[in-house]
Amino acid sequence: MRAVVTGGAGFIGSHLCERLLAVGYEVVCVDNFLTGRPENVAHLTERAEFQVMKRDVVHGLEIDGPVDAVLHFASPASPADYLRHPLATLRVGAEGTRHALELATAKKARLVLASTSETYGDPQVHPQPESYWGHVNPVGPRSCYDEAKRYAEAMTMAYRRERDTDAGIVRIFNTFGPRMRFGDGRVVPTLIRQALDGAPMTVTGDGSQTRSLCYVDDLVDGVLRMLDGHIGGPVNLGNPHEVTMLELAHWIRELTGSHSETVLVPLPADDPKRRRPDIALAESELGWQPRTPVEEGLLRTIEWFDEHTESAGALARVPAPASPAGQVAGGPRPSAVSEAGLGVS
Ligand code: NAD
Predict the structure, then answer these.
(1) Which of 203-217, 221-235, 264-278 is most confident?
(2) Confidence at residue 336, expressed as pLDDT on a 0 to 100 scale
(3) pTM for the full model?
(4) Domain range 180-212+241-272+291-337, its CATH number among 3.90.25.10, 3.40.50.2300, 3.50.50.60, 2.40.240.10
(5) Does the Cβ of 249 fall within 6 Å of ligand 1?
(6) Residue 176: is its pLDDT beyond 80?
């Protein structure tokens, strides 16, 4: 079996490449390194079953030989990245997605499109089921990403209907883990970096807005389940456990043993106030739910960041908690972290 992963040198893409190799795929990683890094897949390049192609999928995606799976993950994903590259974001969502769909159609391969919870915009329905059509500002600063992904979804469904392409859509909610970039502007790496540096931890708005955070290993598991089937979706993949931004900051401070203070800064334009996936469809269609408690994922991420900074080793080490089997991954509120023996402050 041979898989093509576009955006394979990015945060999620690199974990996906690793997992596909682990389950026996040959993997072709296609990336232009706009927001990804060669280091993310450097440890895989020794393997004969792994190949990296530096290519911009906006300009085409020709792959020689058989292809059984196309995982289309190429796109800037953090707000800082897509606000810096709005045209590249629109083009990879439009032309890049068309090229990925053409490849899958020609090779009779299964395609999984990485879409996003941003297709729901600033949602007026909570939690968000796939049947909700969203509340998106089509001309706001974030529209380059939201509308690119909505267009990519529409094109994926059109290929299914008109060309019989075996394509499916996953709508990914906030995912975190090792190999996120410190400077990518997303909340988890930003707060971890600030906590490790002892700098003020910046929380937007009044800090009451929520996100639900899924650990990357769980997300990759859901993507592989989507790849194994033939459904079109879209299917939400994310952790339904909701956390406010103030709680997250407090939690990261406890887990790092940092004494950083929290400061409130203005909310960015069109920033969604609440986000939480309804994962009933993923549970029934894919038999999937996240397994990693958020605090365990945060610890693994903090340790990775600690090992990959100049001030490596500053972090007080704490034991990772065991995963309770058969339970949707959530975790205690920050005030309970110390009681669970995880607090280091
Ligand atoms: P990332 O920025 O780390 O990875 C994206 C990768 O795509 C990078 O390696 C980048 O260089 C590559 N890329 C961008 N444009 C390209 C092009 N034209 N040709 C070839 N490669 C290109 O982001 P990520 O967080 O790993 O996100 C991966 C995918 O998952 C994206 O499609 C994103 O929209 C989606 N997603 C991620 C999240 C999340 O929380 N991380 C949430 C929702 C959706």
Answers:
(1) 221-235
(2) 28
(3) 0.90
(4) 3.90.25.10
(5) no
(6) yes
According to the model, what pLDDT value does residue 268 have? 77
CATH 3.90.25.10 location in the chain: 180-212+241-272+291-337
CATH class of 2-172: alpha beta
- Tens digits of per-residue pLDDT, 214-225? 999 999 999 999
Cβ(185)–Cβ(257) under 8 Å? Answer: no
Q: Distance of CA 181 to CAs 34, 40, 128, 200, 240, Å?
A: 13, 10, 28, 19, 24
Mutational pocket test of ligand 1: of 14, 30, 33, 35, the residue with most ligand atoms within 8 Å of the beta carbon: 35
Residues 206, 337: Cα–Cα separation, whole Å:
22
Q: Which two tokens stand for residue 131?
A: 């049947």
Going by CA atoms, what residue is nearest to atom 21 of ligand 1?
Answer: 31
User: Is residue 12 within 6 Å of ligand 1 at its C-beta?
Assistant: yes
| Integer Cα distance of 6 and 182 in angstroms | 22
Q: Is the pLDDT of residue 73 over 80?
A: yes
pLDDT at site 184: 85
Ligand 1 touching residue 77 (CB < 6 A): yes
The answer to whether 145 is a known catalytic residue is: yes
Pocket lining: 256 vs ligand 1, CB cutoff 6 Å? no
Active-site residue among 25, 145, 159, 215?
145
User: pLDDT at position 338, please?
Assistant: 27
Residue 336 vs residues 163, 241, 327, 332: alpha-carbon distances, Å: 53, 15, 18, 5
Q: Which two tokens stand for residue 167?
A: 């394509």
Ligand 1 site-directed mutation target among 6, 11, 112, 170, most atoms within 8 Å of CB: 11
13 C-beta closer than 6 A to ligand 1? yes
Summarize the confidence of residues 240-269 as an average pLDDT: 91
CATH 3.40.50.720 in the chain: give the residue spans.
2-172
Give residue 21 CA to ligand 1 midpoint distance, Å.
19
Cβ-contact 71, 109 below 8 angstroms: no
Q: Does position 327 have pLDDT exceeding 80, yes or no?
A: no
Q: Is 194 in the pocket of ligand 1 (CB under 6 A)?
A: no
